[in-house]
Write a structure and sequence with these properties.
The protein is α+β, with helices and mostly antiparallel strands. Helix content is about 25%, strand content about 35%. A 6-stranded mixed sheet has the order 2-1-3-4-5-6, sandwiched between helices. The longest helix has 13 residues.
């Protein structure tokens, strides 16, 4: 992933530090290229994320129109490490997708980790940020 794109994802999380932000990351030719924020409509957005169905459909439609594919689903954890929670695992709407979790848990330090389902379990994937 490019550094500007990673920086933009971290910025999205920082814009609303008290709630989980979420969205999609589109890719062109397998390379992540664009962020599609989606409204979090969860009853408790500080601890969970639930994507607005209309926003999801609009984002997927725009990706298709732009010749992009779904690269990853991202969301933030305002006060937890960047690891899938039980709620995250229960709500996997795209079970084969890459999941990026951004943690705001440590003051002054942001952390982003990648996860993907493999053999029925969530496994961490190497996330490389390139200049």
């Amino acid at each position: 992933m490019s550094r500007p794109l990673a920086t933009r994802l971290l910025f999205e999380a920082q814009k609303q530090p008290d709630m989980e932000v979420c969205g999609f990351l589109g890719a062109r030719d397998g390379e992540p290229c664009k962020i599609y924020p989606v409204t979090n409509v969860a009853a408790d957005p500080a601890r969970r994320f639930e994507m607005d169905p209309r926003d999801q459909i609009a984002a997927m439609k725009t990706m298709r129109e732009n010749g992009e594919t779904l690269f990853a689903i991202y969301h933030s954890h305002p006060s937890a490490p960047p690891e899938p929670s039980i709620h995250d695992l229960e709500g996997l709407g795209y079970p084969d997708a890459l999941y990026l979790i951004i943690s705001l848990n440590i003051k002054g330090v942001l952390e982003m980790r990648a996860w993907q389902r493999a053999d029925g379990e969530m496994a961490e994937r190497v996330l490389t940020v390139m200049d």
